[in-house]
Amino acid sequence: MLEDGRTFRGRSYGAQGTALGEAVFATGMTGYQETITDPSYARQLVVQTAPHIGNTGVNTDDAESRRIWVAGYIVRDAARRPSNWRSERTLDEELSVQGVVGISGVDTRAVTRHLRERGAMKAGIFSGADAARPDSELLADVLAQESMAGARLAEEVSVDAAYVIEPKDHGWEGEPRFTVAALDLGIKSMTPVRFAERGVRVHVLPATAALADITALDADGVFMSNGPGDPATADVQVDLLRDVLDTGIPFFGICFGNQILGRALGFGTYKLRYGHRGINQPVLDRRTGKVEITSQNHGFAVDAPLDGPVTAPVSRFGRVEVSHVSLNDDVVEGLACLDIPAFSVQYHPEAAAGPHDSAYLFDRFVDLMAASKIKESH
Question: Among residues 93, 176, 182, 232, which is most buried (max CB within 10 A)?
């Protein structure tokens, strides 16, 4: 049931009960396990636009975090049985075990068109005894929940204690080239792996980490991850990033990290009507003229001028330009600082699941750290 009263009826899928959250749609044709375990989907009911879901089951290796984060799951044709040599459990079983309420047999095209025209909205999935209650009571439950605008969720999904990802565990031979302090705002497990493959030791830190935690590591670079919630609530992380930028340590951010860089530079953020979610989102790299097909999951965006470069509103950080834009709607998809070593993108270059067009961004950050070290030595 959507907050405007539009109702869709189907069959219970996964756990039974009630799931409340913001209804959003994801357009990926593959990678449903990576989708549901992406912490950026916390407190959201995900509608899969691909009709067949669950065909390949689930396995331990493909999870992008320690648990399923979607608040609820909405699919059209749930596979009756998985068929894949890597499958360990059915998706239905996994949802049930983790207490995630879902619904199948729903016309997800109709749900998607509704959300596309009217925007992401509060919603609820009700099954079992809960579904027998009057529609008026169910709608009251939907309307009573908190809005995603103003939600502070990064601290809820972040780790409690720091941990390290070593290059030698991911195919790198020899000593690590660099050390990166990565702030976990809802990080996907493949992101530090992409660094490790390039010889970078990654210290993953809780969302509440301070500058002292970063300097204690003698980090060559700082990274801020993707994550859920409203970037307007991330004042702690914005203040931390300003301290990082003042020290001159190279910075790279993705998704939520892009929005935090935007705010640190003095730009605002705003909520998109229905967001970008899926693994087929076209982005233009304005510096090279190349088009990348990208993996995205965001409902908020940075409000920065496209006709740059411009001096950042926080002028001590110098000039900044919008480096990447969405070819669907001209939303800011990347920022590049021209006078300090910092850049970010709004999408997910680790691409799990998804295309690998954007893997070069990890190399770009490695090059930025290398250039910064050379500069220091001189």
Answer: 182
Segment 238-280, tens digit of pLDDT? 999 999 999 999 999 999 999 999 999 999 999 999 999 998 8
> Is 337 part of the annotated catalytic residue set?
no
d(CA 298, CA 221): 24
Indicate if 93 belongs to the active site. Answer: no
Whether the Cβ atoms of residue 376 and residue 218 lie closer than 8 Å to each other: no
The confidence score (pLDDT) of residue 104 equals 98
The model's pTM? 0.95
CA nearest to 69, candidates 234, 227, 255, 257: 227
β 44-48/101-104 pair status:
unpaired
Of 255, 276, 333, 337, which is the active-site residue?
255
Cβ-contact 202, 168 below 8 angstroms: no
Catalytic site includes residue 350 = yes
Catalytic residue among 34, 292, 333, 350: 350
How far from the centroid of its chain's Cα atoms is residue 373's Cα? 30
Peptide bond into 42 cis (omega under 30): no
Q: Are 251 and 219 in contact (CB under 8 A)?
A: no
Q: How much is the mean pLDDT over the chain?
A: 96
Task: Indicate whether 376 pLDDT > 80.
Answer: no
In this structure, which amino acid lies at residue 257? G
